[in-house]
Amino acid sequence: MKILRYExxxxxxxxxxxxxxxxxxxxxxFGSFTICxxxxxxxxxxxLSPLDPNKLILIxxxxxxxxxxxxxxxxxxxxxxxxSPTAVIGPGEIIRLPNLEDRIDHEAELAVVIGKRGKGIxxxxxxxxxxxxxxxxxxxxxxxxxxxxQYTRAKxxxxxxxxxxxxxxxxxxxxxxxxxxxxxxxRQDGRTEEMIFPVPVLxxxxxxxxxxxxxxxxxxxxxxxxxxLRPGDEVQVEIEGIGSLTNRVEG
Length: 251
Known about the structure:
GO molecular function: acetylpyruvate hydrolase activity; isomerase activity; metal ion binding
Domain Rv2993c-like N-terminal: 1-50
CATH superfamily of the largest domain: Fumarylacetoacetase-like, C-terminal domain
Family: Belongs to the FAH family.
Helix content: 10-25%
Keywords: Metal-binding
Distance between the termini: 36 Å
Protein name: 2-keto-4-pentenoate hydratase/2-oxohepta-3-ene-1,7-dioic acid hydratase (Catechol pathway)
């Protein structure tokens, strides 16, 4: 089931995508909801980010080839950090570069949406706590990462966390294609089976530190091929079984 968030005539809501039409949801996204029989043509709405995350938890260097291209060692355990949820934007929105001097890269990532609260979740039960998956672009200022020695500022600027286009609730994340193009040119092309720490291990490791809660989003790391974004670029993240997330870049 593909669940999206949309805006129509100034009102926002959640719905289920059925071909080129949307059936609105009533109730709580992470609780009890019903699917309405009403249908809205998809071209009559504007897609938003599929949710406003509660916490945004990022995983660094989770693909060996990406660690190598950055000249960094592979971590012995998941390298986790937080970014501000206010950086999230949706499909079709603009990624805005705060300056044109710093190197600001794209990072295509599988995003995990948590649907149930849990602390100390064992990896073999991780699926019980996952609501679904979406596409993410972990836009990152490399100059500030190096300057700060940690990643929060470099990854938390407004518009630096595109998510979308919707949440796919029925998906096996173990071996999916993760692909990114800039102006139609392939820059990143990997598979989730290349993750050093797969999704269930990440859920276990994060929840050992603090509770995972409904609406939390985990960005699971990026394959190799990251490169700078420039004003005028069109960047597209495509993940097998989910869909594609497209954003333009402006200075």
